[in-house]
């Protein structure tokens, strides 16, 4: 009976293995894109602090990069909703959590 079960379930296990491999590859790709955007933000902050680019160019590029990072974050699966953190009555949107993570400290540059 064991051999028969193994033979009958083999196609399903194969499909499950393929699906798992595709999922892992997609997660790695998204993670790599997150890292690339964060690296671009770090480089942008360094260029701005050293005076290589103007504040207007910095603001435009920063907005583009932060929007991309937010879009990547929104595409990621979210944990289940916690009703205690529901801020439906809030009038202002929350600031991007990525801005603080990418801004170097004052003496860090």
SS summary, helix count: 3
Instruction: Report the sheet-strand fraction.
Output: under 5%
| Shape estimate | rod-shaped
Return Rg in Å.
Answer: 22 Å
**How many distinct beta strands?**
0
Features:
single chain; mainly alpha; 3 helices; 69% helix; 0% strand
Walk me through what this model shows.
The protein is mainly alpha-helical and 109 residues long. The protein has a domain at 32-74. It contains 3 helices and no strands. The chain has helices spanning 2-49, 55-75, 97-102. Helix 1 packs antiparallel against helix 2. The longest helix is centred in the N-terminal third of the chain and has 48 residues, at 2-49. The protein is rod-shaped, with a radius of gyration of 22 Å. The termini are far apart.
What's this model, at a glance?
This protein is mostly helical.
Layout of helices and strands:
Blueprint: H1 2-49, H2 55-75, H3 97-102
Helix pairs in contact: 1-2
């Amino acid at each position: 009976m064991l051999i028969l079960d193994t033979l009958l379930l083999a196609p399903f296990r194969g499909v499950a293995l393929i699906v798992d491999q595709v999922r892992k590859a997609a997660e790695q790709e998204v993670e790599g894109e997150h890292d690339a955007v964060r690296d671009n933000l770090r480089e942008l902050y360094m260029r701005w602090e050293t005076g290589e680019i103007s504040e207007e160019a910095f603001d435009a590029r920063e907005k583009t990069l932060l929007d991309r990072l937010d879009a990547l974050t929104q595409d990621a699966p979210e944990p289940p909703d916690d009703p205690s953190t529901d801020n439906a009555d809030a009038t202002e949107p929350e600031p991007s959590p990525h801005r603080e993570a990418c801004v170097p400290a004052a003496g860090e540059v």
